[in-house]
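#structure-requests
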Amino acid sequence: MSVTELGLPGLRSAPGADPTRPADPRLIDRFGRVATDLRVSLTDRCNLRCTYCMPAEGLDWTPTDQLLSNDEIVRLVGIAVHSLGIEEVRFTGGEPLLRRGLDSILSQVSALDPRPEISLTTNGIGLARRAEALASVGVDRLNVSLDTLRPERFATITRRDRLTDVLDGMAAAQRAGLGPIKVNTVLLRGVNDDEATELLRFCLDAGYQLRFIEQMPLDAQHGWDRAEMVTAGEILAQLRADFDLVPDTEERGGAPAERWLVSDGHGGHRGSVGVIASVTRPFCAACDRTRLTGDGQLRSCLFARTETDLRALLRGGASDTEIADVWRGAMWAKAAGHGIDDPGFLQPDRPMSAIGG
């Protein structure tokens, strides 16, 4: 395989590579999509037990020796940025703040040239005391999960009484300059599905950007029921009863959220709200993501049933060039869509906590 010194490396077909794939160094697929956004799960461990994610007793966590080391994570992210055209890196979990050596990983990734945009998705536990440090090591912005503003409901959903900690963490992150803080909310039928308006009003007043996410079939219990899912249509109907929503005309690109501007009643707007309708309004045709699990498995889709083992390549002595070529091949084979509406759809064996959000 040849490598040029200008821009991304050039390509020749590797042994076993699909001969129909163009000689393009980026993470292209057969449907014209280009992955520029890398999601990296740092751990499957979490300090909450959200009912739609995992059982009360938790899960069997991945053994430490099977997780990528800090250096292995940085190496793979470096390959993605230098050789594959990745422009954004989001660190997820589980709960990424539980990852030992997190600050070192972040600072090394922020030192890459070109420097990718760096974000973190967190449940907010412990964020208050770490927000300034995260900003100092290179995090650009945060997504924080928050499904309710009512303490008793928070305890019911997460099985932990930690709402105050999350709210304090969000405020600290905003003060540290990690904005705009994006708030991820899942509405559960009969639990918190009457809070859409309350949550939006809270986020508008605080300067946060709220995004509702349709519940997806990624729970460890495999108990997801489409009929019980609160749909994007229902969410928007609830919001429109109290707010004047105007479609955002800004180009959406590969962003998962459909966005609406919230009118202030005087020709301007107070802020925005988004809805990620992965189930009822899938956006697979514009997907620009590639995913790496905490144990080094490459996934082309959140709902993929197959994975590519990059950890084995790392520990088997593969070169950066060889790893990059395998990564390109895996993404070239990406399916057209997640297939949730297909009669034969099967939920991934791994739960969201192990895949990474």
